[in-house]
Amino acid sequence: MINVRRLAHATLTTPDIDRQIAYYTEVVGLALVERSKDRAYLATKQGLEAIALELGKGNALSRVAFQVAPGTDLGDVSRALGKDGVKCERRKGISPGVAEGIVLKDSKDTLVEIFSDYAFARDDGRSAGIMPLKLGHVAYRVDDVQKTVKFYCDVLGFRVSDWRDDTFAFLRCNTDHHTVNFVYDAEPQLHHIAFEVKDWAEIQRAAETLAKHDIHLVWGPGRHIIGHNIAIYHRNADKVRVEFFCEMDQMKDESLGYFDPRPWHQDRPQRPKVWGPETLRNYWGYGSERVIRGYQTIE
Ligand SMILES: [Fe+2]
User: Fold this and answer.
1) Four-way CATH pick for 134-292: 3.20.10.10, 3.90.1150.10, 3.10.180.10, 3.40.50.300
2) DSSP β-bridge partners for residue 42
3) Distance 121 CA to ligand 1 centre (A)
């Protein structure tokens, strides 16, 4: 098993790279790091590469990159993957900030790029758009959630933060409650990508920025119950569902085994658990409604 430490960049295919570059730079507020005819790389203003674009159909994730501890020997990564029966190969030039990595296929056949050493991108000096802190998580619809969770935990070193019955799993690789989520669907596909912003005020600014660009929310603002993040969602021109979130649950100490105390937690302490199928999607906001009949509430 290897130990992934963070989500790096997601590679999305698009039929119109120019349009997506305009969206990611002017609306999302990333910096364009490198551009060629059929490829582009974008990073946060803090220098974390977040999105790679390549020509193809819209709304599809072709690759996802994760970082292991800096300094880790990639040969050791290959050997550990081999021990787990995973075929992989070494590849140079993963991205402008990643000179070399190991490429493998996960259990749902998405290409995964693993690297240890990263060169931060330079700030482009522009102030535009929402300017998130980082790409926080990637959510995927998969036809076998258990198999995918087993792969991410046993091979890549993720831990399960929460389940919603047995169809929706939230996995962490660092203090964040989730870095990947997998939800059951007979047709595997990208569910959404999510960028972290600093706080609730930034969520408001994000919503205003989206509206200014005539992009309207499809869900939120609301506070999720599982993960407890405040979130807003919209779809971009490629129909990719994009979330901005803040205040996600934090597992600050794995040995303590609970999420850092928050006023809205249902349990004290809030530990990883299986939430029932009746669990509402939101604590407040759209998705938290129950139809009120007298003093009774029903879903
Ligand atoms: Fe999300």
Assistant:
1) 3.10.180.10
2) 32, 51
3) 25
